[in-house]
Model the fold of this input.
Amino acid sequence: MNDPYETTETHLERLLGRALNSFDLPDAVVDRLDRALAHASSLCSAHHSAGLHRETYRHTYLLTDGSALSLWELVHNTGRDGARMHELYADESGAQLAAARLCRPGSPEAPKLSAFDAESGESRVCSVDPADPQAVSPAGEPPMDDIAAGLLSQLESERTAEIDAHLALLRALRALPAPAPAPRHRMYSPDNSPDHARRVLRRAENDDRPGEETGLLLKTAFAHHITQVFGRQCQVEGKDAGFMLYEHAFLLIDGSETSLWEVEHTATQDGRHMCEVYETESAAREAMELRAQVR
Done:
């Protein structure tokens, strides 16, 4: 990965230029990279199978103040006609979550994830199957009740091959709620929350994303917590598509709470990753249902 004739400045320009999500890197990280003197790159992990090639690289930079800063690059062949795609993350847990999103249901190569709070790193580490919504649900959340399981079993017995892939996704999206769902546990982290909210809103591509009023409200946030609520890899119109749902919960200065609901998916014409942000969980789930059926 290291080119002895490539300057650190050129290396950074090339790295940031090819990443699909470079705009999502924290501004503070990008500012520090301007002070990079030298760099080194290494391969952290790799998986190669008939349908998926995936590598994770660590790029480490020596800064003018003597400190070091690392970026994690995920490279995979999920673009159109197997084109290589690049993603950048400021922390290893973010790269792990993105790598897990690429795994097929039940695949043994799924990396170990730092549980549900991708930013704080305080949650337990667990091996996650991205095809199992229970596997990525917060600890303590009750499983589907027996009545719901029976209904889904009946639906499955009557399904046809034509709707098999859609059923797998829709049964998770439309799972019957438990009678008394346990509240999601939140461990708020005071980590420049207004900037985090700004970045979430900035990457939203849907026309009905939260507006200026929501942005002004979130400027009063002083802590936040991220929860991965849902994850699913499926096929839409014969093509692989991944769906992830995150809740970005914010604690405001007046003690109240509010949330942004982020849908990340690859149900696009060219298979690229797309982010959509909504003010309510129901709106986010409706959007996932729509993307699962219309492409």
In short: The CA atoms of residues 72 and 92 lie 6 Å apart. Strands lie at 36-48, 53-63, 68-76, 85-89, 112-113, 126-127, 221-236, 239-252, 257-265, 274-278.
